[in-house]
Design brief:
CATH topology of the largest domain: Tetracycline Repressor, domain 2
CATH architecture of the largest domain: Orthogonal Bundle
Largest sheet: none
Distance between the termini: 67 Å
Strand content: under 5%
Number of strands: 0
Order of helices and strands: HHHHHHHHHH
Number of helices: 10
Shape: elongated
Oligomer: single chain
Number of domains: 2
Radius of gyration: 20 Å
């Protein structure tokens, strides 16, 4: 067999493995949301994805690993091993010169991500109290999010309040843009994603820029 054929075979196998992994994670996310975490089994995920249960265990270690992989894929929208803070849409925020526009763009991005991952993250929160593996995973997620927000605050600091430390601003940003607030307004309150993003932009400006939103920029709610 030639070197070219070996490279082709290797690439094909890697693509097939990525495809199987994506199918497993998508199946897990769907079943977790439709039936709940406790009621979903690895065997059901495997059957839905068209693979063996042994393959699922080998790749993810069990249900907690599946939930973590599902959260990661749904939040990012793909399987690329790139941190959320290092993705092009996050990096582009630093190029926005006006702090008002920067905060509104950050709010729009947070709304988009929360709309995708919010239901799964709420599921994780509900399971963490009864499953030690999921509780550990939730703590890992919180620490990862704290680091993401520390980096983002430092990256977006130009024109923002000088009286806040990076740690203070990062925790404020993490909580205000987090899934809990999104869930309270969009799911429980019935707000649209657009209304939520608009409110969040105003809130981020008030928290970090300390100047009122510009007239005519807000949309009517309700």
């Amino acid at each position: 067999m030639s070197t070219t054929n070996r490279r082709y075979d290797s690439s094909a196998r890697q693509a097939d493995a990525r495809s199987r992994r994506a199918a497993i994670v998508e199946s897990a996310a769907t079943l977790f949301l439709e039936h709940g975490y406790s009621e979903t089994t690895v065997a059901q995920v495997a059957a839905e994805a068209g693979v063996s249960a042994q393959l699922v265990y080998a790749a993810f270690g069990g249900k907690a690993g599946l939930l973590w992989a599902a959260l990661d894929r749904v939040a990012a929208g793909d399987d690329e091993p790139i941190l959320m803070r290092d993705r092009p849409e996050s990096l582009a925020l630093a190029d926005i010169a006006d702090p008002h526009d920067r905060m509104r763009a950050a709010a729009a991005l947070a709304a988009e991500v929360n709309g995708r991952v919010g239901p799964l993250e709420r599921l994780l929160d509900s399971v963490a109290g009864s499953d030690p593996a999921v509780a550990d995973m939730r703590q890992k997620l919180v620490e990862a999010m704290r680091e993401d927000h520390r980096v983002l605050i430092q990256r977006l600091a130009d024109g923002m309040r000088p009286d806040l430390t990076v740690e203070q601003a990062a925790d404020m940003s993490r909580v205000v843009t987090g899934v809990q607030v999104w869930h309270g307004l969009v799911v429980e309150g019935g707000w649209t994603q657009e209304q939520y993003a608009d409110w969040l932009g105003d809130t981020l400006i008030r928290l970090f820029v300390m100047e009122p939103p510009r007239p005519g920029r807000r949309r009517r709610r309700g």
